[in-house]
Amino acid sequence: MIATGLTLHRQAVSLGTRDGNTLAHELLSIERGGYWEADKLAALVEHTPGKAQHVALAVVLGAVENITSKQTWRHPSPTDRAYFTQLAAWGYGLSEVEQIVTSATDATDDPTADYAEDYDGDDEE
Fewer C-beta neighbours within 10 Å, C or N terminus of the chain? Predict the structure, then answer.
């Protein structure tokens, strides 16, 4: 899941981490620092290198979860399907709506297509 998230689903991860990854911090029970503070996830990896995979997985899961919404079941992307399918494989009981996402066939084969319209590439406000 980590390698797939950082490669195939990289746009989702990028969007989910633009403003920090609040859910990754929550998954690891780490208080998220302020805007000007160093990222506390990085500090965890620096002080405990054995936790690097845990942090990477939390970042990927948090980022993908961040891009899901109440409307995901209507237009699931391949990233959404992969995410919920993996959760089910790990033993998470999917709700009826989440099961719709995993069985959807109308999503495009391009995992980046849904995110291109959400991000215009212009970081200037």
Answer: C
More confident call, 124 vs 66? 66
Cβ atoms of residues 30 and 41 within 8 Å:
yes
Residue 10: which H helix or E strand, with range? helix 10-17
61 has pLDDT over 80: yes
Spatial distance between the Cα atoms of 18 and 37, rounded to a whole number of angstroms: 15
User: What does 33-77 look like in DSSP terms, one character per residue?
Assistant: P-TTSPPHHHHHHHH-GGGHHHHHHHHHHHHHHHH--TTTTTS--
pLDDT of amino acid 125: 40
What does the pLDDT read at residue 105? 67
pLDDT at site 26: 92
**Which residue, among 25, 29, 110, 115, has the nearest Cα to 68 in the 3D structure?**
115
Q: Which residue is associated with the tokens 């998954």? A: 27
- Using CA atoms of 16, 17, 23, 27 in order, give the dihedral in degrees to the nearest 10: 120
Q: 60, 51, 52: which is closest to 21 by C-alpha?
A: 60
